[in-house]
């Protein structure tokens, strides 16, 4: 675990005011310092070079602020530049430290990833050390959305989690879950899914009928012998039309199956 090492009496805080341009050690004995020249900002790097910093576009009336934190979880502190963007959002540029080069590189999100995310720029960054993931949050309308990035050994970012919003609302459907968190692997394949409420908590669904058969896939032909009973509480993992993928914790352990909403609510009718 790295530690911040204040230099020349400067106390480094998570976010620094304009007058407190950070000076820090990305690794022991290697110094880096943010400098201002006119309206521009530069980073004096450990390898002796001077890097012009790119300031995000945002509210022109407010100066940028700086944060020093390990954003890619490699054990070395990195540099982030933040500017307000609108009423509640912000925009970030991040410079990751490369110890083999003794200099920083501007973090660029590949265009292919940007097509899949909710936030069109890095915003309200929150590193999650337990998941080793960098979360970017942005607000649209009444809700906050997020995308989470992990980093390959090469240092390249890949999309780890994102929220997907469904726009196929059917007023005839007995229940509808609009937002799902999708977890992906480094190749971009979805490996997990779950429905979330407005507070980003997992949605649950209660079986409304006396007996509801479980299916291995969203098709009648996949019906098995196992069933749930009225009052059983399930976590909602996915929805395809009038089919729900649920996770139910039984006495024998958790199971993941599909259930038919047509069957559930047809039997529930008086």
Question: Would you kindly provide a written description of the structure presented here, covering whatever features stand out?
Answer:
It holds the Pfam family FG-GAP. It is a single chain. This protein is mainly beta. The protein has two domains: 23-165, no CATH class; 204-268, SH3 type barrels (Roll). Helix content is 4%, strand content 47%. It has two helices and 20 strands. The strands form five sheets. A six-stranded antiparallel beta sheet has the order 9-10-11-12-13-14, with no helix packed on it. It has a four-stranded antiparallel beta sheet with strand order 1-2-3-4, with no helix packed on it. A four-stranded antiparallel beta sheet has the order 5-6-7-8, with no helix packed on it. Strand 3 and strand 4 (50-52) form a beta hairpin. The model is unreliable at 1-18 (pLDDT under 50).
């Amino acid at each position: 675990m790295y530690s911040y090492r204040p230099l020349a009496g400067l106390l480094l805080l998570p976010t620094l005011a304009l007058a407190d341009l950070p000076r820090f050690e990305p690794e022991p004995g290697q110094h880096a310092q943010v400098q201002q020249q006119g309206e521009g900002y530069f980073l004096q790097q450990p390898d002796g070079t001077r890097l012009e910093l790119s300031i995000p576009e945002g509210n022109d009336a407010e100066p940028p602020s700086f944060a020093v934190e390990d954003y890619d979880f490699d054990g070395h502190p990195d540099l982030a530049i933040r500017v307000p963007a609108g009423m509640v959002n912000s925009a970030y540029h991040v410079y990751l430290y490369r110890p083999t080069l003794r200099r920083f590189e501007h973090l660029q999100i590949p265009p292919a990833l940007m097509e899949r995310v909710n936030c069109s720029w890095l915003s309200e960054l929150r590193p999650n050390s337990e998941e080793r993931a960098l979360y970017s949050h942005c607000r649209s309308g009444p809700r906050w959305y997020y995308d989470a990035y992990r980093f390959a050994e090469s240092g390249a970012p890949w999309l780890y989690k994102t929220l997907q919003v469904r726009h196929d609302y059917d007023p005839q459907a007995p229940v509808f879950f609009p937002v799902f968190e999708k977890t992906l692997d480094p190749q971009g394949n979805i490996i997990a899914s779950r429905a979330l409420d407005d507070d980003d908590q997992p949605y649950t669904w209660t079986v409304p009928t006396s007996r509801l058969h479980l299916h291995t896939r969203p098709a009648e032909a996949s019906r098995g012998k196992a069933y749930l009973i009225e009052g059983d509480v399930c976590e909602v993992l996915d929805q395809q039309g009038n089919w729900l993928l649920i996770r139910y914790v039984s006495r024998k352990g958790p199971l993941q199956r599909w259930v038919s909403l047509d069957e559930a609510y047809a039997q529930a009718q008086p």
